[in-house]
Inverse folding.
Protein backbone atom coordinates (compact mmCIF):
# COMPACT_ATOMS: atom_id res chain seq x y z
CA UNK A 1 0.00 0.00 0.00
CA UNK A 2 1.46 3.39 -0.96
CA UNK A 3 2.42 5.53 2.01
CA UNK A 4 0.13 8.41 1.04
CA UNK A 5 -2.89 6.10 1.30
CA UNK A 6 -1.74 4.68 4.62
CA UNK A 7 -1.28 8.18 6.05
CA UNK A 8 -4.57 9.49 4.67
CA UNK A 9 -6.52 6.46 5.84
CA UNK A 10 -4.51 5.93 9.02
CA UNK A 11 -3.91 2.32 7.96
CA UNK A 12 -0.75 0.38 8.76
CA UNK A 13 0.16 -2.33 6.26
CA UNK A 14 1.48 -5.61 7.65
CA UNK A 15 2.36 -6.89 4.19
CA UNK A 16 6.00 -7.65 3.45
CA UNK A 17 7.71 -5.18 1.14
CA UNK A 18 9.86 -7.83 -0.57
CA UNK A 19 10.02 -11.60 -0.93
CA UNK A 20 12.88 -11.91 1.55
CA UNK A 21 10.60 -10.57 4.29
CA UNK A 22 8.19 -13.50 3.85
CA UNK A 23 10.29 -15.62 6.22
CA UNK A 24 9.52 -13.20 9.07
CA UNK A 25 5.71 -13.18 8.81
CA UNK A 26 5.24 -15.95 11.38
CA UNK A 27 7.30 -16.49 14.53
CA UNK A 28 10.37 -18.68 14.11
CA UNK A 29 9.60 -22.09 15.64
CA UNK A 30 12.89 -23.82 14.91
CA UNK A 31 15.98 -23.64 12.77
CA UNK A 32 14.80 -26.38 10.38
CA UNK A 33 11.51 -24.58 9.74
CA UNK A 34 13.33 -21.28 9.20
CA UNK A 35 15.64 -22.93 6.66
CA UNK A 36 12.58 -24.42 4.91
CA UNK A 37 11.03 -20.96 4.68
CA UNK A 38 14.22 -19.52 3.20
CA UNK A 39 14.36 -22.36 0.67
CA UNK A 40 10.73 -21.74 -0.29
CA UNK A 41 11.38 -18.03 -0.81
CA UNK A 42 14.40 -18.89 -2.97
CA UNK A 43 12.17 -21.21 -5.01
CA UNK A 44 9.59 -18.43 -5.48
CA UNK A 45 12.29 -16.00 -6.54
CA UNK A 46 13.57 -18.52 -9.07
CA UNK A 47 10.10 -19.06 -10.48
CA UNK A 48 9.49 -15.32 -10.80
CA UNK A 49 12.88 -14.51 -12.30
CA UNK A 50 12.60 -13.68 -15.99
CA UNK A 51 15.55 -14.19 -18.26
CA UNK A 52 15.15 -11.66 -21.04
CA UNK A 53 17.53 -13.49 -23.35
CA UNK A 54 15.15 -16.49 -23.42
CA UNK A 55 12.06 -14.40 -24.22
CA UNK A 56 11.51 -13.83 -27.92
Amino acid sequence: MPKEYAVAGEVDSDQPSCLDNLVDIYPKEGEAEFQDRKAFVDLLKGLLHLESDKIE
Summary: The chain has one domain: 14-54. The mean pLDDT is 77.
